[in-house]
Amino acid sequence: MINLFHPLISVAIQISIWALTGNLWYGVAASLFYFGRELAQAEYRWINTYGKGLRANLPFWGQFDPRVWTFKSFTDMILPLWATVFVVLLWNF
Predict the structure, then answer these.
(1) What is the count of structural domains for the chain?
(2) Range of the domain at 25
(3) DSSP, residue by residue, 38-92
(4) pTM above 0.85, yes or no
(5) What would the pLDDT profile of 9-38 be if each residue is shown by its tens digit?
(6) CA 3 → CA 6, 8, 74, distances in Å?
(7) Close Cβ partners of 75 (under 8 Å, ≥ 6 residues apart)
């Protein structure tokens, strides 16, 4: 199931940042939190599945290995970014 809570949180933070700075693009950075979070979770999945539980076995590309990504983890990373960029584009339209 797609989690729509993350995009809503990102847009709420984006609007808060916009109220403080007057720039909607600064709020897109709110969605980058979810990028980092999902990349870190992909690292842990790779370490548990292929790295024998040791971070030292993780190659530099481990978190980008498509075998450790699921549809849910991908959407949890992409949807907040799309939502915040959509708000900027909609506002500037």
Answers:
(1) 1
(2) 5-92
(3) HHHHHHHHHHHHHSTT-GGG--TTGGG-GGG--HHHHHHHHHHHHHHHHHHHHHH
(4) no
(5) 999 999 999 999 999 999 999 899 999 999
(6) 7, 10, 11
(7) 2, 3
